[in-house]
Amino acid sequence: MRGRAPLSLDDCRCPVCLEIFMEPVTLPCKHTFCKSCFLETVNKATLCCPMCRKRVSTWARLNSRNNTLVNQELWKQIQTCFPLQCQRRLTGQEAEVDQAGTGTHTGRDIP
Ligand SMILES: [Zn+2]
Ligand SMILES: [Zn+2]
């Protein structure tokens, strides 16, 4: 039986962009990157893992064709554990909260 340790944010950090994984792609060598980082680095680096230099060309071609690049199980866990971080990256928002300041203030004292 496998123990299910809860994910820590450090486990979900992409070694390329140092942000939380967006649509994580886990290579056969067990290194994981965001899909966009994977496409940026692995595709450009003659289809080798940027971490260990393992060739993943066959794997990458097969999985892009089948649309199975993304590690859906991990992606689901990340979205469950860190919904705020995901939202922020997906919408491209920063941490600041922007609230519409419509000051409708009815400060009337009726006795
Ligand atoms: Zn990344
Ligand atoms: Zn690797």
From TrEMBL:
It comes from the Eukaryota. Residues 14-53 form the RING-type domain. It is found in: Nucleus. SMART domains: RING. One of its GO terms (molecular function) is nucleosome binding. It catalyses: S-ubiquitinyl-[E2 ubiquitin-conjugating enzyme]-L-cysteine + [acceptor protein]-L-lysine = [E2 ubiquitin-conjugating enzyme]-L-cysteine + N(6)-ubiquitinyl-[acceptor protein]-L-lysine. GO terms for biological process: chromatin organization; double-strand break repair; response to radiation. It is an enzyme of class 2 (transferase). Gene3D superfamilies: Zinc/RING finger domain, C3HC4 (zinc finger). PROSITE patterns: ZF_RING_2 (PS50089). GO terms for cellular component: catalytic complex; nucleus; site of double-strand break. This is RING-type E3 ubiquitin transferase. Keywords: DNA damage, Metal-binding, Nucleus, Transferase, Ubl conjugation pathway, Zinc, Zinc-finger. Its EC number is 2.3.2.27. The keyword Transcription regulation does not apply. It comes from Monopterus albus (Swamp eel). InterPro entries: RNF168/RNF169_E3_ubiq-ligase (IPR051657), Znf_C3HC4_RING-type (IPR018957), Znf_RING (IPR001841), Znf_RING/FYVE/PHD (IPR013083).
